[in-house]
Amino acid sequence: MTPRSTPRRMGALALAAVALAALVPSAARAEGPELISNGTFTNGHAPWWGTPNLTLDSSGGQLCADVPGGTVNPWDVIIGYDGVPLQAGESYDFGFHALGAPSTVARALIQLPVAPYTQYLSAAPELTPDGDDFAYAFTSPVDLPNAQVAFQLGGKAEPWRFCLDDVTLTGGAEPPVYEPDTGPRVRVNQVGYLPGGPKNATLVTEATTPLPYTVVDAQGRVVHRGTTLPRGLDASSGQNVHSIDFGSLRRPATGLTLVADGETSRPFDIDAKIYQRLALDALRFYYPQRSGIEITGDLRPGYARPAGHVGTAPNTGDTTVPCQPGVCDYTLDVSGGWYDAGDHGKYVVNGGISVHQLMSEYERGLGRRLDLTIPESGDHVPDILDEARWEQEFLLSMRVPDGEPLAGMAHHKIHDRAWTGLPLLPHLDSQPRELHPPSTAATLNLAATAAQAARVFKPFDKAFAAENLAAARAAWTAALANPAMYADPNDGTGGGTYSDPDVTDEFYWAAAELYLTTGEKAYRDFVLASPHHTGDIWRDRGFDWGNTAQLGRLDLAMLPSRLPGRDTVRRSVLTGADEYLAVAGAHPYGMPYAPDGNAYDWGSNHQVVNNLVVLATAAEISGRSKYRDAVVQGMDYILGRNALNISYVTGYGDVAAENQHSRWYADQLDPALPNPPPGTLAGGPNSGLQDPVAQRLLTGCAPQFCYIDDIESWSTNELTVNWNAPLAWVAGWIAARGGC
Ligand code: 9MR
């Protein structure tokens, strides 16, 4: 959730220069589509936003807020909605129900979302405590894809209450129904297949009986033939499909195509080295995500940028960051770390799982010799650990200082006070930065990763390892003393919430890491007593930042220890893997992801990949090739064998995602900026459709179609540090142990 344009201020000059469109009361609704996707607030208020001085409350089925008094300008307090498409010469009707208590006059605007904030409609509704319906009409003078609806509520001496409901904006031509270009009906892994590995494809067809297919080489010769297997209607795509298994074709080749039902697939290779480059690129993704350091062009040609958030104007910097008002009276130097995603926020829970998966890749013997071309390359430490350290040091810096009542805890997150718009390079972000309250979840993420860091860094830097172990112990003690400090699910202005009302799984993960590092009884007893130790934790959706028990279980299964019942733990991984194997086997697109209710999650791609981590671990525990094959086959989905016929990894495959939501890889908005670097995973289909672009274009989508490669679709197309971590892990695993 990295939206959106910031609440915009309107300068006096701009105001004076504005020529208002003709304003007439409107009786009937203009013909044309409804342009506001959530004007009734029946299910929350996304994607509406408010200035940081407001707490938006939609729990009562309308959007209400207590407006602070004592502000100077109307635009000091705003409730807004972005991304409304306007067409020049078309007429529009704008309506809403609103109340003000005590009575007051507000401003309702439809305007350009950036300076000079040209207003196409400006109204002054007289609000009363009983509430009234308001209706206006205007003709748009411009073609604009992203107008803003803004209720300006500031400039009043006294506080008052504002409520809004039934917001509607109709008019303009019916937009053409969005039809993604899905190319040929034969869906393959567009990068390729391993010579000795599984080779599967999917054909979209109305045919209900088997069809012949051929594989054709670059010279046009048929090198393989066979028959498709009808699979019926696939609920995840709404398509009738056949699957194709051409695994007996083993000879390496480039530029192959698969031909079936009169369609020719996009080209692919058969090559033993398919995953080597991805294993590297997926990790090289992290250096240009770094905060607090210049990204140099010699290390990343085309991606050079100044250091972000180091305190050089206009940045306020992350070097002396205060808390949100009333949260603490100290400042912390929290510079460094990785930016979480396409926003400039840094979040301990999400940083935690990401750095854990990098260290886990190393601990499982993967990625150790990769040259990540980072400033530390060439030192005596493997690059993958140098990269992990950049984040781990940030996590340590988020600790409440000694002497404070909550010493040992970690602050949940640090980010901008208000959401910023796109594009915005990190060093140009002028928003004040704030620490948010400590949380149990963040503290346990710190405990887990610091315990792990104590193990992996010991051979390279004993002092750093010892510092981490001490921090892990202190964090564990502090979490036990404060076991229910949950991050506020409404604290989502300027950054994501990452709130999680159940931290029993984080307790289990942290205890597991502390036990594996120290072997101590207290941690062992906690592990053995946790319901997560024996429960079925292998959820269909996969593990993620909010579901971390699996991280503990996998490490207990794979790392040496004297844990009683360790064999049972190892067998439990096979049980989970068998569940995913069954899902993949039943899926005509071959991936281990079929969430309950057929609703895809935010970041579904990484949940597919995290399920591959479980399958890969099962392959190691059992030595059985069926698990390995499922890992390799699962990557086919990510790299093109999917309903949209797209590779979700930048730079991989003929047609790949490239406009992932990011404030600095914003080529789609400013051609002077680059696209994300090769090896960047897009979040992927998300049935929730929380952003306006997805809501406008994808409403009603079958799950696999709930994705659009648009930079403003932050709920389907963002990039994040926690999504690339399992991509790197799995690519590294296949490269090293795919064995085919
Ligand atoms: O990945 C997060 C997803 O699980 C949540 O459902 C979503 C809404 O809270 O937030 C996602 O995380 C975003 C975070 O809040 C802010 N930075 C970008 C993250 C990826 O979109």
TrEMBL record:
Enzyme Commission numbers on file: 3.2.1.4
Signal peptide bounds: 1-30
Entries under InterPro entries matching the protein: 6-hairpin_glycosidase_sf, 6hp_glycosidase-like_sf, Cellulase_Ig-like, CenC_carb-bd, Galactose-bd-like_sf, Glyco_hydro_9, Glyco_hydro_9_Asp/Glu_AS, Ig-like_fold
Matching SUPFAM superfamilies: E set domains, Galactose-binding domain-like, Six-hairpin glycosidases
The UniProt record lists the keyword Signal: yes
Catalytic reactions of this protein: Endohydrolysis of (1->4)-beta-D-glucosidic linkages in cellulose, lichenin and cereal beta-D-glucans
Official protein name in the record: Endoglucanase
Organism, scientific name: Phytomonospora endophytica
Lineage of producing organism: Bacteria, Bacillati, Actinomycetota, Actinomycetes, Micromonosporales
